[in-house]
Amino acid sequence: MVEHIRCTAIILSVSSIVFLISGILLISLSDLLVKKTVNRECQLKQGTIIYNIWRNSPVPFYISIYVFDLANKADFLNGAKPNLIQHGPFVYKEQRTKEDVKFYPNGTISYRESRNYTFDRSKSMADETLSITTINIVYMTLINYLDMKNIPDLFRKIIGTVLSLAEKPIMQLTVKEYLWGYQDPILSLLKNRLPQLVMNDQVSVFASVVNEAQYETILISSGVGLDENHIERINNLGRIERFNFSTNLSVWSNKYANMINGTDSTIWHPDVKKDEFIYTFMNDICRSVHLKYNQTHKNLFDIDTYHYILPNDAFANSKDNEGFCLNNTMENGTQQLKCLPSGLFSLSSCVHLSGSSIAIPLPIIASNPHFLDSDRSIQDAVDGLIPDDISHRSYMDLEPTTGIIMNGSRRMQFNINVVNDSKIDAISHIHPLVYPMIWVNEHAEIDQPNADIFHKKVYVPLLLLTVFKYVIIAIGTTLLITVISLVVFSRYKKNILAAPEPTTITDETTPLLV
Questions:
Q1: What residue intervals traverse the membrane (predicted)?
Q2: Long-range contacts of 287-294 (CB under 8 A, 24+ apart)
Q3: Do residues 5 and 145 both lie within one domain?
């Protein structure tokens, strides 16, 4: 009996150890298994590895544009604050197409990306024919250029007089013309008279950025294989290695600001950690920005996500952002950094007036919408803006296991630097300020059909794997408890059987029969 129990205990002990070790190995290897599974799911038929989630994102993209309408034109020209009325959103479905895709043996992929926009009237507040009053972009660009080049007073007065014959500092356009292009009078005149100087007379506040992007070449990491140090590249998935064939920019005033960090914000690596910065490179503003972890929550489709937000000091006038201050040539010829107030950064070295053989910088200044997180003096210089942390801050929701971006909004406001010039009558009384033109919300959110696919292809296998590994551990634990019980019971029985029988002391007085 005891030997039988002992044999059973040994068998169960071995079984329990096997189950426990299997369960522990499954736990420790489960993340690796998930990564390998994600990688395998993203292979193309031809054997060249590229991620379908990157090339054909399951998350629909939309862009909402808000425009600012000047309500007090006459008072503004006489020095009053601009009273702005926000109109929007004007919503467009965004279709991204990867073109000229090439694969390289070192695990990188190059491509260009064209974007097509379709107006969605059902999601918009009004039709694109809505008329607005705003700053004349070309007029103010030329005035800024004169100011930057320190043109003598006499020449500025002559140029201002000639300019005023064709242009006015304030213009009225439809939303469609403003965003997607209109013919500028002064550029049209120059195009006809000096075609070698001006080749394009169309001006827009949004389409020019879209058109330029299709000529930009981006090289990213596929995240597959090992690097030169024999480390897996999975954490580099989607990271931009080169932009227009260069590993860095030449726009800003130091090497840190000119670094190209992060992805294009449409993909991120699997196994996301809460404490890591989510970097994204935004070519339309010529810089990288980062998001910080904020909280974990479930989205509308019961998918757990990490919520990352743009920090409130992302564009602060700080030591970390010193490189985004521009070099300014002083009267004595020396160079000095010119920093804007907190919350702003100039794009004049990044964007130029299109269609001209002369690189005329556009006096565009970027910020958060409604000057969120900007210096109070910038906010107080205009009427009609109400910064709101929920509506105006950029954010991103990542599914941490796969790195799929489930939801996100990239929000940015584009402003123009308004200057006055005492030698030019039309703007001699304008109060200098940063004038809001538009703000853009590029947003994406997974829909029900794609959420169902995600549950089927990712959540269900992960759930089965999780249940399986814990079932094994439970079986192993149960067997181990059984083994311990049997061992204790066998020892108890052994002690009982081995106990000596009681002895009786006899003498001549002890009876022979009891």
A1: 7-29, 458-489
A2: 287/249, 287/251, 287/252, 287/257, 287/324, 287/345, 288/259, 288/260, 288/261, 288/262, 289/314, 289/394, 290/261, 290/262, 290/314, 291/394, 291/395, 291/396, 294/395
A3: no
